[in-house]
Amino acid sequence: MAKKKPIKKKQATKPKTAELRIDQAGVVNGVLFFQGSVDGGELVRFRVSCDELRDLAGSIATAADYQDGQEVSPARQVAKLLTVESTPPRTGKVRCRPITDLTAIVPPPAKPVETGNPKLWAHLEKQIGPVPQDYKDYITLYGTGSLGGFVRVYNPFAHDEYADLMRAILRFYEVNSQLKQLDGYHFPYPIYPEPAGIVPWASDDNGNVYYWQTGGDPDHWTVVVQASRSPRWQEVRSSMTAFLVDAFTQRVKCRFWPSDFPDSSRPDTFQFKQFKRRRKN
């Protein structure tokens, strides 16, 4: 009788890593960008605050060593080998949830501030186009503040400059429009209003940024997360509300969140923290 061949068990796949060689760097508006290639092929880039250089790659420089628009040669200790995580894009049906799923986890404030009105929403959408309905529902119920004292959803009616949606979008456009003028600059996603372009809708206390990947029905825009001070991205085939609900209940893991967040043993994890109102300059 022929012997049966042993069945090989499939090994769990590990996140792909690639060698990223940095061969160019510069500064625009106080943000240091690096540019290089993965395994000598695909062109990539990422950017970090000048203040965070020591955390990222040791004492290669300080903010004082750079000037806006300055080209930095590899000889100045910038040509270093780093690791970048490669995340394949996800496809499939977009997961959506009603706003009531979020309010059941993180109750909205009794008196939300800066919630807008139909006239202000119409003015906003005249400027930037339609936005998802769950985003409107969120602003109406929560106003300005942060979920769990951590995730700050931008509000188009906020007076706080760091909570204001339009200022966040303008900062995003300004930095990338200046970087685009540099030879060889590459950004991994188109920028709204380009087809399937991304546009920011939130950030968190660790500096991660959350984007919509637009295209088609705004209620089916999906979520893209950019890790702070890193070339890593995470795509989630979910609406804004579905992502927040699933991330806070740990059905979906946001890879860039602290290991101890969300913490179900801490009541403040599921509280909404309102911002104090500040006047825009």
Q: How would you sum up this structure, described in words?
A:
By secondary structure, the protein is α+β, with helices and mostly antiparallel strands. The chain has helices at residues 53-57, 99-103, 118-128, 133-142, 165-180, 240-248; strands spanning 16-28, 31-38, 42-49, 71-72, 81-86, 145-147, 151-153, 198-204, 209-213, 222-226, 233-236, 272-274.
Features:
281 residues; alpha+beta; SMI1/KNR4-like; 2 domains; 7-stranded antiparallel β-sheet; 5-stranded antiparallel β-sheet; 20% helix; globular
Provide a concise account of the structure shown.
This protein is of the alpha+beta class. It contains six helices and twelve strands.
Task: Kindly give the count of domains.
Answer: 2
- Number of separate helices: 6
The biggest beta sheet is recorded as:
7 strands, antiparallel
What distance lies between the first and last C-alpha atoms, to the nearest angstrom? 85 Å
Content of β-strand: 15-25%
Q: What is the architecture of the largest domain at the second tier of CATH? A: 3-Layer(aba) Sandwich
Q: What is the N-to-C succession of helices and strands?
A: EEEHEEHHHEEHEEEEHE
**Poorly predicted ranges:** 12-20, 27-32, 37-90
Please state the average pLDDT score. 75
Kindly provide the name of the CATH class of the largest domain.
Alpha Beta
Number of strands: 12
Structural class: alpha+beta
Shape: globular
Radius of gyration: 21 Å
Share in helix: 10-25%
